[in-house]
Amino acid sequence: MMNIISVAVDRFRNDERGSMSIELLLVVPILVWVFLSTYVYFDVYRVETNSVRATITLAEMFSREEDVDNTYIDSAREVLRTLTYEEANPDVRVTVYRYRESDKTFRRVWSRQRGFGTNLNNSDLADLKSAGRLPPMDEFDHNIYIETRTQYDAPFNIGLGPFVVTDLEDLTFTSEMVIRPRGPKLCFERDNGTKICGPGGP
To answer: What pLDDT, in 10s, does the model give residues 24-40?
Structure first.
């Protein structure tokens, strides 16, 4: 009896016959999933890389200016949208701040945002300082803090495990950069023509 079972098992194990249609039915969905997963996986990093590069570009733009206004902020958002290949406008916030030696704090000079909801304030700067995200600076210097936020929607819902949101829906990339103005300071010109420059600089 054992010999019969052993022979049957060996015969089953060594049998290489099969139905191509059944094998195709089993393998093709796996191959399609692997292909789409690979595409989405690299697409995520492409969008993230573009977001970082766009933030650096915006930082360079603002660092070369001496005066900006609301039109310039709107144009910067449009540049960000173009560089990140977004159909909808991504978010951008620009904050110029200084260091106050008397109480060792960072103080906002001006802040303008598009899409973030609120401008950056002194309390936010204190939190950034505590987190070590603002570099040290001299009292009479100004720094520009650029923040961008882009939304990513995966072209295919394939459920990538390594990501927190496995279907990659509503995945947000936030980039930030601190840069020093090439001139003495970066001022913001209001619609009425008055400028916000703040103390510091020559």
So the answer is: 777 888 888 778 777 77
Residue-level pLDDT at 172:
83
- CB atoms closer than 10 angstroms to residue 28: 10
Are residues 62 and 79 in contact, defined by beta-carbon separation less than 8 angstroms?
A: no
The pLDDT value recorded for residue 163 is 46
Q: What are phi and psi of 138, to 5 degrees?
A: -80, 160
The length of the chain in residues reads 202
Dump pLDDT digits (tens) for 149-187: 988 777 666 555 544 445 555 678 899 999 999 988 999
Residue spans of the domains in the chain: they are: 21-196
Token representation of residue 69: 């206004």
With H, G, I as helix, E, B as strand and everything else as coil, classify residue 99.
strand
Q: What angle do CA 168, 172, 173 make, to 5 degrees?
A: 120
Global pTM value: 0.77
The tokens describing 13, both together, are 């194990």
**Separation of alpha carbons 188 and 60, rounded Å:** 16
Exposure string of 81-112, with b = 16+ CB inside 10 Å and e = fewer, is bebbebeeebbbbbbbbbbeeeeeebbbbbbb
- Coil, strand, or helix at residue 167? coil
Backbone angles phi, psi at 167, to 5 degrees: -95, 0
Quote the distance between the C-alpha of residue 108 and its chain's center: 23
